[in-house]
Design goal:
The chain is α+β, with helices and mostly antiparallel strands. The protein has five helices and eight strands; from the N terminus they run ββααβββαβαββα. It has an eight-stranded mixed β-sheet, sandwiched between helices. α1 crosses α2. The two termini are 13 Å apart.
């Protein structure tokens, strides 16, 4: 999936768990750097070692209802995206599922130099990637109730808060966004 935006081209590819070649960094090393950065506190992996991140993403790769992707901005790794079946992972038994639901997490790499609108462009590209699957009718997310930054981003792309839920690791806001809500919220965005 490729999404051309004013800030550049965004693509996603499956997370590659193989070792890096000489002089390169592996996806696992990149993700480790991203999830342990202080800006990524809501990922709850701040103290994770490289082996912990590798083990977590090997578990995700082996799971039949969970996938991880590296997002590229103009060909360079810039964000992490996870897609999951919310009836099997994260939200199993915690909400009223509908046919065509898909769950999502995303994390933008800590910027060297912040670019205004970049994170908004990333979440737009993530949503476009999810809705590129014609079977997906609604995206479901469960951000921490205290994560106001991601709540604002979610609202900007059409998410509605359904209710607060209790998960083992956090108090979360159950939010949903249909294809139509996403399109209505982003109409007029340059694509």
């Amino acid at each position: 999936m490729t999404s051309k935006k004013p800030l550049g081209t965004f693509t996603v590819r499956p997370l590659d768990l193989s070792p890096a070649g000489p002089g390169e960094r592996s996806d696992t090393e990149l993700v480790h750097e991203w999830v342990t950065h202080p800006r990524s506190s809501f990922w709850m992996m701040g103290d994770a070692r490289l082996e912990d991140v590798e083990r977590e993403y090997m578990r995700i790769a082996a799971h039949p209802h969970h996938d991880a992707f590296i997002g590229l901005h103009d060909g360079r790794p810039a964000f992490l995206m996870e897609r999951y079946d919310p009836t099997e992972v994260e939200l199993k038994g915690l909400y009223e599922a509908e046919p065509g639901d898909v769950g999502m997490h995303f994390l933008v790499a800590p910027p060297g130099t912040p670019v205004h609108g970049f994170t908004r462009a990333v979440i737009g590209a993530v949503m476009e990637a999810l809705f590129a699957d014609p079977e997906v009718r609604r995206v479901v997310v469960e951000p921490d109730v205290t994560n106001s930054a991601v709540q604002a981003l979610n609202k900007a792309v059409g998410f509605e808060v359904v209710r607060e839920i209790t998960k083992p690791e956090k108090q979360a806001l159950l939010c949903t966004c249909t294809r139509e809500q996403f399109e209505a919220a982003t109409t007029g965005d340059a694509r």
